[in-house]
Structure formats: C-alpha cells, structure tokens
Amino acid sequence: MAQLFVRMDDLESVQALAPDLEKIKRFEEELRITGIAVFTLKTVSNEVSAHLRFFAPSIGITENAAAGSAAGGLGAYLALTKGLPESKLLDFSIEQGLELGRPSRLYVSVQSRNGYTKLVKVGGYSTTLLRGTLKLP
User: Fold this and answer.
1) Fewer CB within 10 Å, N or C, the chain?
2) In terms of pTM, does the model score above 0.90?
3) In angstroms, rounded to a whole number, what is the distance separating the alpha carbons of residues 41 and 60?
4) 93-102, pLDDT tens digit by residue?
C-alpha cells in the first residue's frame, strides 16, 4: 500500500493537526496513495520511539487509532533513513490514537540486510470499541 509519510519536529504540532479530509482525499487520489502518516520522534511516553497519526479518507478512514500498515511503513522508512538511534533501528514502539481518546501501542520489528528492508513485523495493543457475537442462520 503506497502511503505518504510526513515527519514533523515537535509533538505539539502533530497533536494539534486538524486535517481537511476532503483535501487529503483529493491529494491521495492525485498521488495514487492510500493514506498520510504524520509522525514525530518526540513522544508523550518515554517508553516509545515515535508518535503517529494516520489519515486515509479515500478509503473511509478519517483517522486510524492503530494503523498497522502505517506502523510497518514507518519502520521500513526509519530503518532506511537511520531515523532512530542505532540501538533502536530493529525494534521499537509507537504511540497512536491519543488524540482520539483511543490510545494504542504498536510494536515494530525491522530486519534489514545490506541496506535493504527484508522483513517488517507489527503487533500491539489498541482500545476495544465494540465486542459482540454475530449469529448466522
């Protein structure tokens, strides 16, 4: 899935984002991407390495509180650009969903060889919104 990643320097700017979803949707269509991931390496929690927000109105997602695809893409990007300190390049965690009141923690593991990303794994925890059972006839 092609996504656009935008790095910002400060946490407050990322937290204050109030995106124009119609403009983002047109931008997604123009670039042929699915989603814009905005991140910073400044965080609320000292236990994580990045703060992430993900918007994909072209597929009906105004904002995702736990975007696994964006977390994986961010991992590959940070490994490629050496965006994290060397000790955190392969395994790190992301906070997301705080602005929605649905905090999540995503864990990313990146395996690289010779400067190329070979494998990205993502897992984590999010806030349950709905739980139920569907009974089919």
Assistant:
1) C
2) no
3) 27
4) 999 999 999 9
